[in-house]
Design goal:
alpha+beta; four-stranded antiparallel sheet; about 450 residues; Gyrase A, domain 2
Length: about 450
């Protein structure tokens, strides 16, 4: 059976000679083809066990579900001759400038997520232990703070390091530049803000450390990496080992502390004030807006831009209110998808839909979106409504963990000792309200062998 599926998909993609790059994620086959005109979209969609198809970020993405995608990928790969390009690189060539910027942003921040997740989960466990009545000794509390606070103290350095790595610079130079932004010899930004320290005056410039900043560190990393690459184009190789790092660090440090840091610190402050103002709108209005529309950002690929905001929340106030709102948005789409799927009569379509819904509970919503809710505008709208209701509930109840990068079920440990009960209620509210709205406005009807959707008027 799987051999037939692989053969049919390969044919629909224009044959093995039309495949430029082939990869897969947890649920989707990601393909970049040489000639898009040879691709047969209808054949892909009608192939057995295919839960959906969409084109995004320069890639043709075929939703197969967990497990099956690995098998189909292996079978197709066996039919291909020679080595293929990286799907990531091939897709990058087909992106618009805006899409490339978003992808680069994701490439910088995604490598940081594992340590942030680990730190957030440990914070949750510590809070849970304290709720159970355990009292930490000063020494043990200090040791837990080493685990929970270190990554946030050095977050600007990690951002610069990752940006250097992404944009072709030497990562260790990036790390050193990042550490210079938060050097202990400089007045600490938190102390300056609280009035316990004064900024360092050098002529007309006033200098401080950039603890807790994300955007200045990102810009320093991007420009520093490109500066190093430019210096390497003309620096004689015999002295490059000495003078390329010297010039990169010196120019990067001066630009970062005197120009880039102060300038983009203002930009970052403006962004965060705007986001906080939205979230804090009265009666949960801000949470409703974000909870409803976050999955729209996912559809367009703009959700990667939120990582800058999440990192800033974690580095400044040590909690991330966007995490709960993202889960609220997912819960709405999950509830709508489940209600719609339960009402279907076509068993094959039901099975395909459920295989697309399951990854949502582990934070992967694209299969559900493109395979289920986006196939009908009212189902998708019901999911938005459910997400908005759950988002409003989240902001009213002040649900916010100390983590980013994990949502829904994987995020549960982060809420231990930090509103786990309300987090679970929020999910139920989102799913339940979306399911109720879906059953009210959407009615499935069967038309021959294909399932179509008739919308109540």
């Amino acid at each position: 059976m799987n051999n037939k599926i692989a053969a049919r998909l390969l044919e629909a993609l224009g044959g093995k000679d039309n495949i430029r790059a082939l990869e897969h994620c947890a649920t989707r086959l990601r393909v970049v083809v040489k000639d898009d005109t040879l691709l047969n979209e209808e054949q892909i969609k009608s192939t057995d066990k295919v839960a959906g198809y969409f084109f995004q970020s320069g890639q043709h993405q075929i939703i197969l579900g967990t497990g099956l995608v690995n098998q189909i990928f292996a079978l197709i790969q066996q039919q291909l001759d020679g080595e293929l390009e990286s799907a990531k690189g091939a897709a990058y060539d087909n992106m618009s400038v805006f899409q490339k910027a978003l992808r680069s942003l994701a490439d910088v921040f995604i490598p940081l997520i594992p340590v942030l997740v680990a730190t957030g989960l440990f914070m949750g466990l510590r809070g849970f232990a304290q709720q159970l009545g355990y009292t930490f000794s000063p020494e043990l509390l200090t040791m837990t703070q080493v685990v929970t606070d270190t990554v946030f103290i050095f977050l600007p350095a990690l951002v610069v390091w990752s940006a250097f790595k992404r944009f072709g610079g030497t990562p260790v130079i990036g790390m050193v530049l990042g550490l210079m932004l938060i050097a202990p010899m400089l007045p600490n930004a938190w102390d300056v803000a609280s009035g316990n320290a004064e900024m360092l005056s050098i002529g007309m410039f006033k200098i401080q450390g950039f603890q807790g900043t994300i955007i200045p560190a990102l810009i320093v990393g991007i420009l520093g990496a490109n500066l190093e690459r430019w210096i390497n184009t003309w620096m004689p190789s015999v002295v490059s080992l000495i003078f390329t790092p010297f010039l990169t660090i010196t120019i990067g440090m001066l630009a970062g502390l005197f120009i880039i840091g102060p300038m983009f610190n203002i930009v970052e402050h403006g962004v965060m004030v705007s986001v906080e103002s939205l979230i804090n709108l009265p009666m949960g209005i801000g949470g409703a807006i974000f909870g409803g529309l976050q999955q729209v950002l996912t559809v367009t690929g703009l959700h990667h831009s939120l990582m800058v905001v999440e990192l800033n929340f974690l580095s400044t106030i040590k909690i991330n209110p966007l995490n709960a709102l993202i889960t609220a948005s997912m819960a709405g789409q999950a509830g709508a998808a489940i209600a719609y799927t339960m009402s279907l009569k076509d068993k094959k379509q039901k099975a395909l839909n459920y295989s697309s819904i399951v990854p949502c509970f582990f934070g992967i919503t694209e299969p559900l979106l493109f395979g289920v809710t986006l196939t009908n505008s009212k189902v998708f709208a019901a999911g938005i409504a459910g997400g908005a209701i759950a988002g409003a509930f989240a902001t009213i109840m002040n649900i916010a963990p100390s983590v980013m990068g994990v949502t829904f079920i994987p995020a549960i440990p982060a809420y231990l000792g930090n509103g786990l009960g309300m987090y679970l209620v929020m999910i139920v509210v989102g799913m339940g309200s979306a399911a109720l709205i879906t059953r009210t406005v959407v009615k499935p009807t069967e038309n021959k062998s294909k399932m179509t959707v008739a919308l109540d008027k």
